[in-house]
Structure formats: structure tokens, C-alpha cells
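Attaching the record inline, Q. Sequence:
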Amino acid sequence: MEPSESTARVIVIGAGPAGLLTAQALKKQGIDVAVFEQATSLSARPRDWNFGLYWAQSPLAECLPDELSAQVEDTQVDERKPSPDDKLRVFNGQSGELLKDIPVPNYLRLAKRRFCQMLTQGLDIRWGKRLVAVSSDGRKATATFKDGSSETASLLVGGEGAHSLVREYLVGPERAALKASPLVASTTMAKLPAPAAEELMRLSPRHVILSHPLGYFIWLGVHDKYGDSRPGDWTFMIILPWIPKEEDDYRPESLQGPAILADMKRRARDFADPSVSRFSDYGANRTQSRVSV
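Structure, as predicted:
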């Protein structure tokens, strides 16, 4: 899989943030690159999430052309501008007291779908291409897709996530197999009643972390808060991670569908105000949100 400088072509499997950003970085260097994604469009999957950029702003800009780098701030969860005074607020989930303000100067909180939409600009993306096999003759790599088509390139990059056929080809099924994490995290997207949403924003303009002595914490943060939208229309991302104990009945395999949300609400009631205890009567059952473990 050694690329020739004169004929180098790269194919990237997966149109998520990693795959698209890789493609943009390659294109910026003048390399012929195409992205192949099994979904039929960027909006084909209902699930969305967001993530923070705390120390990687400069490397991100280096991967993008100037016209896209200038758009990164517009893909955030809200319209707040990065500030040298930005911080993560951490509260004691039992007492409600403020434990610490962690400085995160000029950080970004990116909404995954908005970020990916921006990254698609100018790229050659082939939708509806499910990878079924990878092969190589030592100089070229070939990707074969479920529809019977195939593509050959100087280099093949796997950016298709946890269930990566590219990784399995490179290291073998045993080493590529997923390993269960001791940490379980339940996540939901939810709209809160306006008073609860406003109260949360008074604690912090974007998100809070609530750490509980029982051994788990809650992340409460904005996911969709744009323009002149009203507090009751804002969408929040709520994450509740914990490490199950041997005697704990709440195992990942026992948490399916509505049971996940019920478990999140049960755990949230252990938290003191200011916390999700006052928000725990709301959640994904008030919207068409997807909940997962």
C-alpha cells in the first residue's frame, strides 16, 4: 500500500468527523481523495451528539482550507464566541456546592452533524457504499462494497468507527474485536421546560458537570441553542456515566429502550440541587429523542 507521488489516490471509508477531516487534510495537500459512506446521506441517521475541542484548535485549522476553517465556530452547539475566560464548572452532586472552575480558554463545543455538514464541502463523497471486504496486492488497496462495486487506490484509510472492517483486515479479527469498557454511559437528548432550561443556564452558559460521591457524575449541556429560540425549545445532551458494581442490577445488557431512561432518572434523584434532581422528571419521553447505552 505504498502510494506513488505521481499517481497517489486515497479512499477514506466513513463520513464521520474523523473520515471527513482526514479527507479535507489530504485534499488540502493536493491529493486525490474520495470518501465512501454506508449511510445514504448525512441526515440518514437520527442520532446526534457534540464534543469539545480544548487544545486542538490549531491542528484542526491546519487540516482545513482557510474558507472552511473560518466556518468552524458556526458549527458549535450555540452562538457563543470562544473566550479566554471560558471554564468548565464542576459541582458536588451530593451537596450542590461549586467544587471547581476548570479553565478551558477559547474552547469549542462542536455539534457533530453541523460539523460534518461543513466538512462535506468540496469533497467527493459516495453515499450508500457499505464496505464488505478489503484486499491488497502490496502496492494498491481495494475496497469492495455491498452493491458489488469496488475501488482501488494507493492508500485506504479506515474511519468507519467501532465496527471497522479496515481495522480487522489490518490487525486480524481477534485484535480488532471490541473490548467491553468498565465504564457505562447512558446518554439522552432532551428538551426541558423553559424554567428548568433557564435555571441550568444560570449555573453555566453552556454546561455543568455534577460529580457524586456514589461514584458517578452527570454532564448537562446545551446541544442546540441558536438565534432567538426560546428556552423551552433548546435541546440538551445529558450523559450519566458510572462503573457497575458486582451487585449492581443495572448492567448494560439489562438496559434496553425505556429502561435506560428510567435508570437515568433513578440515579439523577440521588443528586442535590443545583443539579438534575429538579430536571429528572423530564427527558427523552417528552420528545422523540433516542436514548442509548
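Residues 10-83+107-175 form a domain with the FAD/NAD(P)-binding domain fold (CATH 3.50.50.60). Helices lie at 17-28, 57-63, 66-69, 112-119, 165-171, 173-176, 194-203, 258-268.

More tomorrow.
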